[in-house]
Specification:
The complex is a heterodimer of chains A (about 375) and B (about 140).
Chain A lengths: L1 H23 E14 L12 E14 L4 E12 L11 E14 L2 E10 L23 H4 L1 E2 L3 E12 L2 E20 L2 E21 L4 E13 L4 E15 L2 E11 L7 E11 L4 E12 L15 E13 L2 E12 L9 E5 L2 E4 L3 E13 L1
Antiparallel strand pairs in A: 1-2, 1-19, 2-3, 3-4, 4-5, 5-7, 6-8, 7-8, 8-9, 9-10, 10-11, 11-12, 12-13, 13-14, 14-15, 15-16, 16-19, 17-18
Chain B lengths: L1 H18 L10 E4 L7 E2 L1 H8 L13 E5 L4 H11 L3 H13 L7 E3 L2 H10 L3 E5 L9 E5 L1
Parallel strand pairs in B: 2-6, 3-4, 3-5
Antiparallel strand pairs in B: 1-5, 1-6
Chain lengths: ~375, ~140
């Protein structure tokens, strides 16, 4: 009898504790999975024969520690076909794991995140893997590249109303990773670089007209690899407007570094039209300018602008779930197979090979809960 | 770079001027608030900020606890268009963006008018909306300015 009572009390206490935990715990997940095929050259992990090994899955959990404090963790599963980057990135990574504290300063709301946190950089960096909010499978690869998707450090954020305007400011310090397929004078190369002492800020201004959002980002970082070391800067300008059935977006990223080959400029414009309540059309054009690295300092070359143009149809098949079909035309030198960039190099003359091109398409489903 | 962005902003501005949304008068819903909130009316912009959690407090200083109807509800559709100036799926997308950029989580969501009224009545700073003909015992109906 006494044992039964004790067990009943224990069960009741543990179920109360479980209830208490479940009240403080929320889960969110997103899936972005597709099939892609390329026409002439493999690109972005998409081979000529096609791949279904193309997926981004995130699972996020938030634990409310108090009214002002929470712990957030997000796991990321990435599969990107036959990309050379697959050798540099694990299938499963801890994308975020951070403590978040909210506070107020006058009429401004503020928070500080510490740990492995989202990095405010441009309009889409923090949601780059969330297909349900993107018109294409991913944001412009040339502009966002496979870099800076998280910050190991701290981000302090403020949001302050300025009359009908609103200002959002973020300051950050820490380290981040940069993984990329780069063009060299001898072809393509996969690079994984660690950025440390990475600091900067991101400002957003929301304008009370046509939902205009303007952004400016500036960051400075120290590049550390076994063979290179030096400082780099990244500036990022953004503009977005959502009005009636249209969304317009444009962004530009400039990277300047300790060697000329680090000077890259990328920009894109994007337009999305809500054709019906459940169907959207989207278009995007990216221009990318890069310099070429030579071991001989007497040689210099700027590659002809690489371009990427995409068009997509997006059907909302259920609330929060989209089916996308996208087609892209890509010209330049960065593909998943070795493409000749330099025909000859007799100092001080460099003869470049003509840029190559391919078309690729992706059909994908994107959903969240 | 500057030229590129000035062109983009100019195009956006011209486009916006041509297609600027018209916020219709509130129809198909009414806004309800906990009786402790000392307000009789509220502007659409303030209401939108509270429901998008851009502002966390009423002008009276009380912390707001907004509650939404579920995304398929016609009253939510009317509220989204009139107050946020965009359809419900755009608001849902806004919340996906907030959640997956590590920012805010969406307001509590309830399936029925009665559940919204019960939540608003029992929650300090509770604010929600229900369909125009719904009964609202124990809560205050706010006028839209």
């Amino acid at each position: 009898m006494t044992l039964g009572l004790a067990m009943a009390v224990a069960v009741s206490a543990s179920s109360l504790r479980a209830q208490e935990i479940s009240d403080r715990l929320t889960w969110h997940a997103s899936l972005n999975a597709g099939y892609g095929r390329s026409s002439d050259l493999p690109t972005l992990g998409i081979p000529l024969k096609g791949t279904s090994d193309y997926r981004l899955f995130t699972l996020q959990t938030r634990v409310k520690l108090s009214e002002k404090d929470e712990f957030v963790a997000q796991i990321l599963n990435r599969k990107f076909g036959a990309s050379p980057l697959a050798s540099a990135i694990g299938d499963l990574t801890a994308q975020w794991a951070y403590f978040n504290h909210r506070f107020t300063i006058g009429d401004a709301t503020a928070n500080i995140k510490a740990g492995r946190t989202p990095l405010p950089r441009g309009l889409l960096n923090e949601v780059r893997y969330i297909g349900a909010v993107l018109p294409f499978f991913r944001p412009s690869m040339e502009v966002y590249s496979d870099a800076f998707d998280a910050l190991d450090g701290a981000v302090v954020s403020f949001r302050k109303p300025l009359g009908d305007f609103s200002l959002e400011a973020h300051g950050f310090f820490g380290g981040s990773d940069w993984r990329s397929v780069v063009t060299t004078s001898t072809g393509q190369d996969v690079r994984v670089q660690r950025m440390e002492n990475y600091y900067g800020s991101q400002l957003y201004l929301d304008v009370p007209f046509a939902n205009i959002r303007l952004g400016a980002h500036a960051a400075r970082m120290e590049v550390r690899t076994p063979t290179t070391k030096g400082m780099m800067t990244n500036t990022f300008l953004s503009a977005q407007s959502q009005f009636s059935r249209f969304t317009l977006r444009a962004e530009q990223s400039n990277i300047n570094g300790f060697t000329p080959s680090r000077d890259n400029h990328h920009k894109y414009v994007q337009a999305i039209a809500q054709v019906t309540d459940r169907f959207q059309l989207a278009g995007e054009h990216t221009i990318s300018r890069s310099r070429l690295f030579f071991t001989n300092p007497a040689l210099r070359a700027v590659l002809p602008a690489a371009t990427s143009t995409g068009a997509a149809g997006i059907l909302e098949v259920a609330p929060g779930t989209q089916l996308k079909f996208e087609h892209h035309w890509r010209t330049g030198y960065v593909f998943d197979s070795n493409v000749t960039t330099v025909r000859s190099q007799i100092p001080p003359t460099v003869v470049l090979a003509p840029p190559r091109s391919t078309r690729y398409w992706i059909v994908s489903v994107a959903t969240t809960f | 770079m500057t030229r590129f962005f000035s062109r983009v902003v100019l195009c956006a501005g011209l486009g916006a001027a041509m297609f600027a949304p018209r916020v219709s008068a509130a129809q198909g819903f009414k806004v309800v608030v906990n009786p402790d909130v000392n307000l009789v009316d509220i502007g659409e912009a303030s209401l939108s900020s509270l429901f998008l959690k851009k502002d966390r407090k009423f002008s009276t200083g009380i912390e707001a606890a907004p509650v939404d109807l579920s995304s398929g509800d016609p009253a939510r559709g009317a509220f989204s268009k009139a107050v946020h100036g965009r359809p419900t799926n755009a608001v849902v997308k806004y919340w996906v963006q907030q959640v997956f950029s590590g920012k805010e989580t969406p307001p509590v969501s309830k399936d029925t008018d009665d559940a919204v009224v019960a939540y608003v009545k029992s929650t300090r700073g509770g604010i929600g909306y229900v369909s125009e003909g719904a009964a609202t015992p124990g809560v205050k109906v706010l006028k839209l300015k």
